[in-house]
């Protein structure tokens, strides 16, 4: 009697473990199919450009925002950096970087773009059609409206390793409350990372 009860208990445990493993495998596959997490920079579709953005909260100083635009061949088109004396919360800073990128996208005249950031929370909010709970909710809505006005905009997440040039731009020094922009020729500080990403893409 005792042995049979033990066997039944082990059978229940075994089934539960099997169900959990199946669920975990399905969940990982579903997540992978739904939203692959890019580790390296990838070229946008033909005829599109990619705008990579990033923000750097500089404690006690302010916030840096960087952006870079490349075409479907990986060719550099534009880069820019801006520094604000406001130390925004990280999510606000990342949205401000998206706003900064969209501004330069509009100035460049392109209307089909992938906007990429390494802040997954912000990407989810920008993709969502429902109201976000983020503190940056009003800014999210504003960016969605701007994107709709500009044309075909796609929001993508990339891990930090795939966003190195924009990350470097966000930490590049410039005058406070001003911005610097580079057209056709990239700044020296991102040359190595641009070449590395071009080879990997």
Automatic annotation (TrEMBL):
One Pfam family recorded for the sequence: RVT_3
Gene3D superfamilies linked: Ribonuclease H-like superfamily/Ribonuclease H
Coiled-coil region: none
Protein name: RNase H type-1 domain-containing protein
Annotated source species: Linum trigynum
Annotated GO MF terms: nucleic acid binding; RNA-DNA hybrid ribonuclease activity
Domain RNase H type-1: 52-171
